[in-house]
Amino acid sequence: MSDDLDRLLALDRRALSERMAQGHPVEARAVIGHVYHGISLGLPRWVERCTWKTFCKVFHQDRHGPRGWNVATHQASDGLDWEPRVRGGELVTYGHFAIRPADPPLPARYGPPGLLLDYSVFAGPLDPMGLLRDPLVALRPDDPSLLLGVSVLALGSGVHTPTWFALLRAEPVHHVAEPLRPARGVEAAAAV
């Protein structure tokens, strides 16, 4: 793990918010074609035990446009592990999202105008994932190898959730998951 990632793991939510606001824009072309290892940040350990600490985010471009999805991973009790979970011979994927610019720009507390993961595009009408938006920033200028993100609920001007995460660039995309539902127009997606 990088020293920057080690420092992020030690931060509380207030410090993570400060790092987000000081972040640097990241463009879709810088992340497309890559799998990132994800780590939940700032959550109490008991919450992590009930949910997850690690996951993967995949960034891809195809007929659906720039998009991505999450891959469930096995949870290690003694550290970080990104071994993907498999069911019926297929990777367990969830939370498909469109990759788009944060337009209109999000409030400054979510970093500079940049990249937004919009879950509404592939969510069903009653799927609560459709309310999620994840702004992303790079921690160093022009370096998309380590990203910081936060999940925001698209309610009014946005309701910050306690879910912060770091994304560490891992490997090229080697498996493409089709979305569970057809894409709804990005123009129909409510901005945060």
Looking at this protein, list some descriptive labels:
192 residues, mainly beta, 8-stranded antiparallel beta barrel, 10 strands, 14% helix, globular, disordered C terminus
The CA-CA distance between the termini, in Å, is 32 Å
General form: globular
Structural class: mainly beta
Mean pLDDT, to the nearest integer, reads 83
CATH class: Mainly Beta
- Characterize the largest beta sheet: strand count, sense, and whether it forms a barrel: 8 strands, antiparallel, barrel
Order of helices and strands: HHHEHEEEEEEEEE
Helix content: 10-25%
Strand order of the largest sheet: 1-2-3-6-7-8-9-10
* Overall strand count: 10
User: Compute the gyration radius: what is it?
Assistant: 15 Å
Helices, by number, come to 4
Low-confidence regions: 186-192
Domain count: 1
Second-tier CATH architecture: Beta Barrel
The portion of residues forming beta strands comes to 35-45%
Q: Say what the CATH topology is.
A: Lipocalin
